[in-house]
Amino acid sequence: MTNHSPSGLPRPSSFTMTPPSPRTLALGLGAILTAITIPLTMQEGALPLLVASRLAEEGIAPGPTGVIVALPFVTVAFAAPFADAAYRRLGGMWCLVAGALLSILCCLVFPLFFSPVLWGVISLAVGLALTFRWVSGETWLLAQTPLHLRGRVLGVQETLIAFSGTVGALIPVATGMSGAMPFIMLGLLTIPGVIAALIAGRLLPRTGGERAIAGTREKTSTRGIRFALFAAFSGGAVLHGTFVFLPAIVPADMMNGHSPLLAASLFCLGSGLLQVPYGLLVDRIGPERLRTLLGVSNLVAGLFLVFLLDTVLGPAAIFFAGIAIGCFYSWATMTISRVVAPRALSGAIARLAICQTLGGVIGPPLIGYAIQSLGAPGLGLVLALIGLMVTVAALLHHRHDRAVTDKRAGS
User: Fold this and answer.
1) Which pLDDT score, from 0 to 100, does residue 272 have?
2) How far from the centroid of its chain's Cα atoms is residue 12's Cα?
3) For the CA atoms of the chain, what is the radius of gyration?
4) Strand partners, 307
5) Architecture of domain 222-399
6) Nearest to 336 by CA among 233, 162, 217
7) Which of 201, 216, 240, 400 is 20 to 30 Å apart from 61, CA to CA?
8) How many CA atoms does the CB half-sphere of 214 hold within 13 Å?
9) pTM of the model
């Protein structure tokens, strides 16, 4: 008798399923990456700019505007468990398709009606679409990727996501900020995400969290998950807080007077440029050996911002901060993919998304008050403090692992 999942699809099994060929696997993973990142070009890059610009034109105050723009990301914290349940029920393909279609619908509805309350509701729907793509897409991607390639594949994903926001920000420039055309264009540009998800569903199994891939741990490591969640929360805090306030604190004469725009670009470039080499390093030596380096690099990056930001080395300090901060979520996801049992993968990714988002909500006010109290060095001091906390936690984690190893060797 064939074993079926609740969705009616044959349940994958490491004993009964024939693995796809390398070519099919590469095409399928590429399709999943496309389905994840193309809608993000709209959602993280262009849509917030359009919504904020249109609300400002209508005379809405900056406070309510900020709330409406932030609602999609706040929604992740509440919708992640539902995305986890949807993945278990429907599989990755249909979750990605549903997320992309919901994004398209939101783009088409935005210009039809103008009401801050209605736009807030639509922003919640946009956040739901983001959550489905984040949790379901990333779980499906990891479930289909062999263990020894997961670091590199996640590195490619993070690189594409980092640059998708930059590309998306150029769309309103090309189409203009007024009228319905930019929203319609964003909806049309999301259609390839639907097509890519359907292609991936034809090439690869539509689920994957249930099957044990060779090399994946069958028992969940509770301590490993806790540290990964802490890293995701810390990364969300410093990533969003730095991105918001960095352009405002750089010296006005830096980079020929174009400091705000170039500082943000340098930071984004650093956060995405080295993700693939970093993933390759994780594949080679494992994420456990990089725990302490993760904290130390952010500690050093924070000190660089404190002491070098107003010097000729300021751009280098900004770029290095982007590299260090960009590794937080990548490291957390790569760790989760190794220490979580296959059946628990989607739930762990959902918890990562919640922690990253909550950190992103807390980070900007924390860094904002630090800058208000201490001036420009406040940003670097917060980053250095978080880097120190992660370093201490990593050393304690290493000490515990060593004690467990010695105890097993003694017994």
Assistant:
1) 84
2) 27
3) 21
4) none
5) Up-down Bundle (1.20)
6) 217
7) 240
8) 6
9) 0.82
